[in-house]
TrEMBL record:
InterPro entries: DsrEFH-like (IPR027396), MSMEG0572 (IPR023847). It comes from Pseudonocardia alaniniphila. Gene3D superfamilies: DsrEFH-like (3.40.1260.10). This is MSMEG_0572 family nitrogen starvation response protein. NCBIfam families: MSMEG_0572_fam.
Amino acid sequence: MAQIVGQRAHQGDAIVDYDEKLFEDIQANEGEKAYVFMHTVPYEGSVGLVNMLTTTRINRKGFDTTLVLYGPGVLMASATRGFPTVGAEAFPGHMAYNNQLQTFLKEGGKVLACRFAMAALYGMRETDVIEGVQPIHPLDVLDCQLTARREGALVLQTWTL
């Protein structure tokens, strides 16, 4: 039988070096933009939430940041989520997507949601998205990408099914 070597870790112990950082903490230059495109199913993994946290961090670095939700990503902007009533958190973390999007919006970020995905795929009305989320024409998803290219913006894209 293998012998366990070392001390057991306790709450509050650091088990890796959290202080070493290899890269400069880059902040946006005046006028720099960022676009994050998400085509992901909420609650089917951590990708959507991690990308929203990353999008919020990009915004906090000073980038003029736009989050583009399309395909199943539009479900992240649902204003009708909750149980047993709209807005009620059934368990800790249940409303994490809504809460993070609202934080991003309050901090000046922009959120766009594809109308095709909203209506044709999920039966969502424009009144069913979180206040501050801007529904867009499905052709605007590509034109937003092309706009980002012309602007020389930072672009992150995530696809999950």
